[in-house]
Design brief:
The protein has helices at about 5-10, 50-55, 90-95, 100-110; strands spanning about 15-20, 25-30, 35, 40-45, 60-65, 75-80, 85, 115-120, 125-130. By secondary structure, the chain is an alpha+beta fold. The chain is globular, with a radius of gyration of 15 Å.
């Protein structure tokens, strides 16, 4: 896909499958909300009460994929090292309201009270896209 097609594809509120490795090196994948903005993926997690956050303390590399559910299938896969930043209400709202305005605002209000809530920003070191509707 072209950069413009990738931007358009990632603008839709699809779930992202986010992969980390645990302290024993075993892979762990979970569906998460995301935001694609200015060439970076934004996610959120909790450092202590979620496996995602604990896994980041033992392995800094992650992988993620976003796929369409309708034919012709399209997908974006990325690898990188997410930067961990303190929770930020604006970013949390930008992520959560993509998946529904009212529920997103309610979720953000709760997330802002969670002491271990953080924001993750990942600029992909590797980005692969595929449109299975093309012959190329």
């Amino acid at each position: 896909m072209t950069p413009e097609e990738i931007d358009e594809f990632l603008a839709a509120p699809r779930l992202c499958h986010f992969a980390t490795t645990d302290e024993r090196g075993r892979p762990r994948v979970r569906p998460v909300w995301y935001l694609w903005r200015d060439g970076a993926f934004w996610f959120t997690t909790r450092l202590e009460s979620r496996h995602t956050g604990r896994d980041l303390s033992t392995s800094e590399w992650v992988a993620m994929s976003v796929a369409s559910e309708d034919r012709p299938y399209r997908t974006v896969i990325a690898h990188g090292r997410p930067e961990v930043a303190p929770k930020d209400r604006e970013i949390l709202l930008a992520i959560s309201t993509r998946y529904g305005e009212g529920p997103g605002r309610r979720w953000t209000a709760i997330a802002m009270r969670e002491p271990d809530r953080v924001v993750l920003r990942m600029e992909p070191s590797k980005l692969i896209s595929r449109d299975y509707g093309t012959t190329a």
